[in-house]
Design brief:
Elements: E1 4-5, H1 10-26, E2 31-34, H2 37-44, E3 56-60, E4 65-70, H3 71-79, E5 85-89, H4 98-106, E6 111-115, H5 120-129, E7 134-138, H6 140-144, H7 150-180, H8 187-205, E8 206-207, E9 216-222, E10 243-252, E11 255-265, H9 270-289, H10 296-309, E12 321-323, E13 330-334, E14 347-350, E15 353-356, E16 360-363, E17 366-371, E18 374-377, E19 389-390
Parallel strand pairs: 1-8, 2-6, 4-5, 6-7, 11-19
Antiparallel strand pairs: 2-3, 3-4, 9-10, 10-11, 12-13, 14-17, 15-16, 17-18
Helix pairs in contact: 4-5, 7-8, 9-10
InterPro entries: Creatin/AminoP/Spt16_N, Creatinase/aminopeptidase-like, Creatinase_N, Pept_M24, Peptidase_M24B
Keywords: Aminopeptidase, Hydrolase, Protease
Protein name: Xaa-Pro aminopeptidase
């Protein structure tokens, strides 16, 4: 996969902006405003570190796309070939407030949608600058991001390939330590190793690496620590008999993938095998049932019922999964409260888990590309316990 270019073309962003305008017209908006960093990257290709200085995108139905940004970010946006007209303010809070600078450029509009993720402080500043404009909250861009364009799917596939290689690297570090007969790695050492493996592959094999919020990495935890679903890596050292989890992922061109496996160090006990086999069975049901036209909440029920039917429902701590794209976690949600219909071109996680306090957690996750008649697991690392057992 050498010479893989992560940067998307200007024509891609033109199609993205056209999709959003179509939805704006359908919902009766003259223009739309968003300051969400992921929306900005989606609409223009500009990735940045958000701060108190606002960066925002204004789209209107005439075809105009304006990016409001601080002057100190202008050259950085130009270096990324941001697909927008750049309008800069000098500093924040500024003698002239940033959104007043935007208002002077875009003029008056009657009905403007704004991203529902915008903070109250930002929205108040916008309304003060455009007092005669009606602003209406909308998740229009979020919904536009659900179904991926073909170029995005290429990026997701490459991120999945690298995530699988990160899992390989984690297992190799542990097996090498076992073979050497010395100390096993700590969770933190293992996390640093797999992160280095992921970023190293990108910089060795890719051009125009897009630096996203998390380029590569994840959660690594063992024993009782893994009973915390999102526990952070610690200095605890792996030891014989441990269950340990590698919850890894990366972003290629800003498009995320996650892949998670649960391992056992040494011969599994009866309980370890029961827990792992149950999660594998639930995850397999998810792989078999996710498809276009299925409600997210029904996908969640079908998957988690396997755990409940096995008598382990008391150990469920979370939903089946979530959408993946420019965010590692984004809508839609494979959860009881989300009736969104899955559609071909969505990418979602399939990650049932159980968490036994004082013992360990068990979770298997693949990133799934939804198709018309099913779903494809983009991550392919083996899932069975026999393949996830490290002999001592």
């Amino acid at each position: 996969m050498t010479d893989f270019d992560q940067r998307l073309t200007p024509a891609f962003f033109d199609r993205v902006q056209a999709r959003v305008r179509e939805r704006m017209a359908e919902e009766g908006f003259d223009a739309f405003l968003t300051d969400h960093p992921e929306d900005i990257a989606y609409l223009t290709g500009f990735f940045h570190h958000p701060s108190e200085r606002p960066v925002a995108i204004w789209l209107d139905l005439t075809g105009r796309v304006v990016m409001l940004l601080p002057e100190l970010e202008r050259e950085y946006a130009e270096s990324q070939s941001a697909r927008a007209e750049l309008v800069a303010f000098f500093e924040y809070p500024g003698v002239v407030p940033p959104f007043a600078v935007l208002a002077d450029v875009v003029g008056r509009r009657c009905r403007v949608g704004f991203a529902s993720t915008m903070s109250h402080q930002r929205l108040s500043a916008v309304r003060a600058a455009m007092a005669d404009t009606e602003f209406i909250g909308s998740d229009l861009v979020t919904r536009a991001r659900y179904v991926k364009f073909p170029e995005e799917i290429v990026l997701h596939r490459e991120a999945a390939r690298i995530t699988d290689r990160m899992l390989d690297a984690g297992v190799q570090l542990v097996t090498d330590a076992v073979a050497a007969g010395g100390e096993l790695p700590t969770e933190a050492e293992l996390e640093r190793h797999v992160t280095s493996a992921g970023t190293g592959l990108m910089y060795a094999e890719h051009r125009n690496v897009v630096v996203a919020s998390l380029l590569a990495g994840g959660l690594v935890y063992s024993g009782a620590n893994s009973a915390f679903p999102h526990g952070l890596p610690s200095v605890n050292r792996l030891k014989a008999g441990d269950t340990f989890m590698l919850s890894l992922g990366c972003a290629v061109g800003g498009r995320f993938i996650e892949g998670e496996r649960t391992f056992v160090l040494g011969e599994p006990t009866h309980d370890q095998r029961r827990y792992h086999d149950t999660i594998r069975a639930a995850q397999q049901v998810g792989r078999d049932t996710i498809r276009a036209g299925l409600e997210c909440r029904e996908a969640n029920r079908l998957c988690l019922d396997v755990i409940r039917d096995a008598g382990l429902g008391a150990f469920i701590r979370h939903r089946q999964g979530h959408g993946i794209g420019l965010g590692m976690h984004e809508a839609p949600w494979l959860e009881d409260g989300d009736a969104t219909l899955l559609a071909a071109g969505m990418v979602v996680s399939n990650e049932p888990g159980i968490y036994v306090p004082g013992h360990a957690g068990y979770r298997i996750s693949d990133s799934m590309l939804v198709t018309a008649d099913g779903a494809e697991a983009l991550t392919t690392f083996p899932r069975a316990l026999d393949d996830c057992t490290i002999a001592l």
